[in-house]
Amino acid sequence: MGSLVLSTFACQLDLGGPDPPGQPIPTSADIANELSRTWQTAINAAVTSGQIMVILDEVQLTTFLSKRLETSENPVLFEPMVYLRNNVVKIFGVYDRSPFRANILLAITPFIDQEGKVSFELTTVELGPIPVPALLKDTVSAILTESFTGTLGSLATGIRITSLAIAEGQVAIVGELR
Asked: Which helix (H) or strand (E) holds 74?
């Protein structure tokens, strides 16, 4: 009886959870650097036109998120995939905190504030039958915010975002130099 109890605690409890909202999205080492180059190219073009336009896809954003989570000392999300549909960013992955493991689906609606900065509203979280930890919400929100104000955003200093549209696996970002 005692060994049964110990073996139960030693096992991982798979709590299930939502299914991915689409086909699996691959990551690519080549694409990891492409995202920064895409921003830089758009900014260089904006110097002459005054306007910037960037189109990013699910593979680029999935790779970016995956690489950022890999560098985290204590990641809370594994195997992430970023889906871009109907003006919503959906992030699917695996939440893994011993002894619990569950699929998770986050729905995030981006919006542009009056200053032309992109912000994100977490609208839906599905994580099996357990409540979603605040740490997970905070981590994902911070990574998304950083993509526009940190690592990539530093390339975009002095740019006011005027529109952002998400559809059919892509996000289009339009802005202007200040």
From this structure: none
How many other CB atoms are found less than 10 A from the CB of residue 92?
24
pLDDT tens for residues 7-63?
Answer: 445 566 777 889 999 999 988 877 767 777 887 888 888 888 889 898 999 999 999
Under a CB-based contact definition with an 8 Å cutoff, are residues 34 and 146 in contact? no
DSSP state letters, 24-79: -----HHHHHHHHHHHHHHHHHHHHHSEEEEEEEHHHHHHHHHHHHHT-SS-SEEE
3-state class (DSSP) for residue 126:
strand
Residue bearing tokens 């798979």: 14
Q: Which residue spans within 39-169 are E strands per DSSP?
A: 51-57, 77-85, 88-97, 100-112, 118-127, 159-167
Contact present, 124 and 39 (Cβ < 8 Å): no
CA 91/CA 146 separation, integer angstroms: 16
Angle at 44 (CA atoms; ends 67, 28), nearest 5 degrees: 25
* Contact residues for 64 (Cβ-Cβ < 8 A; gap 6+): 32, 35, 147
70-125 pLDDT per residue, tens: 888 888 789 999 999 999 999 999 988 778 888 999 898 888 888 888 878 787 88
